[in-house]
Task: structure prediction
Amino acid sequence: MLFETQDESQWHAHLRHLRTGPQRIDWSMTRVDTFCGRLMQPTTYRLSLFVPDSTHEPSGEQPDH
Result:
């Protein structure tokens, strides 16, 4: 996970910083989740990166078990 907040303005500010800042991320490898708040739970915003599956062989073949 890269970032998580329950403050919507902080969420938007962080995304703006990522888009315009010196550090670039691969947006095709990101996941954005919005956990919708209900009654007692506030809405939560989360930005994550997908992690490649390290159990696969570089050739794309599955290892023998």
